[in-house]
Amino acid sequence: MFIDTHCHLNYKFDSDINSIIQHANDSNVKYMVCASADPKDIPEVMNIIKSHDNIFATIGIHPDYIATEPQDILTENILTNKKVLGIGEIGLDYHYHPETKQKQIELFEKQLEIAQKYNLPIAIHTRDAEEDTKNILVKHENYGVMHCFTSSWDLAKTMLDRNFYFSASGILTFKNAEEIRETFAKIPLDRIVIETDSPYCAPIPYRGKICEPYMIIETAKILAEIKKLQLEDLESILEQNTLRLYRKCHVK
Fold first, then answer.
1. CB 234 within 8 A of CB 192
2. How many helical (H) and strand (E) elements, i.e. helices and strands, does the chain have?
3. 3-class state of residue 55 by DSSP
4. How big is the CA angle at 159 (ends 112 and 107), to the nearest 5 degrees?
5. Phi, psi dihedrals of residue 250, rounded to the nearest 5°
6. Which residues of 139-172 are buried (b: 16+ CB within 10 A; e: fewer)?
7. Which of 7, 52, 89, 138 lies in the 20 to 30 Å Cα band around 58?
């Protein structure tokens, strides 16, 4: 059984959500973690997890939404929900809006404090902001996962020392992703989980298509090659890693 640890099921797909779930189940993706980014997404995400037994959520505010006050959004009622596994995706992204750096940092640190208060893992987004991401995280006692990890081995080493996990996405299958594959070769097997980041990052051979959770198998195949494992063995390890990362996640 595979668990897609990060997907945006509330975004627009070619199929409706029931079809997406059925297609995933047919491909042995039995559980999914729906991540929020835009605060306006949160009511829909909460409705999705309420309506589907095999979908959990992480709730957080992406750095694009710096005008948001997280304490107004990440309420106790949401964060104590048994199907809300963590806070994410949160972090820093200087790719398009480097001028908002300070506001992003403020939003990030506020969410880290909330995660500590509720003892919840965090799902970290970092893009063109590796040094600041590292410097902020080492000052806090949070635990969690580096979502869709494509950063350097240097950052990986730092976060390994802080007991973080690392999520492999469809990017691992890309032809120009050799450095990322080398990094995942070094990351201990018990610190790896897997995701699609649907509807983004469709793996080869689905490049150019809207990514869905069923496509996770292609990333798993490459990861199994990197780790020199049979796919069935990797599948079991990834499941156990996910359950350690997201302690509120209960699967059958």
1. no
2. 10, 8
3. strand
4. 25
5. -115, 120
6. eeebbbbbbbbbbebebbebbbeeebbbbbbbbb
7. 138
Q: What is the tens place of the pLDDT at every residue in 180-238?
A: 999 999 999 999 999 999 999 999 999 999 999 999 999 999 999 999 999 999 999 99
The amino acid that residue 131 corresponds to is E
**Do the beta carbons of residue 199 and residue 185 sit within 8 Å?**
no
pLDDT the model gives residue 11:
84
Cβ 195 vs Cβ 7: under 8 Å:
yes
Place of tokens 């499941």: 239
Residue 181 has φ and ψ, to the nearest 5°, of -65, -40
CB-based contact 170:215 (threshold 8 Å): yes
**What would the pLDDT profile of 54-111 be if each residue is shown by its tens digit?**
999 999 999 999 999 999 999 999 999 999 999 999 999 999 999 999 999 999 999 9
The pair phi, psi for residue 145, each rounded to 5°, is: -135, 140
Q: What span, in angstroms and rounded, lies between the C-alpha atoms of 181 and 225?
A: 10
- For residue 3, give every residue at least 6 positions away whose Cβ sits within 8 Å of its Cβ, in sequence order, or none: 29, 30, 31, 32, 33, 193, 194, 238, 239, 242, 249, 251
CA distances from 247 to 202, 233, 250 (A): 28, 22, 8
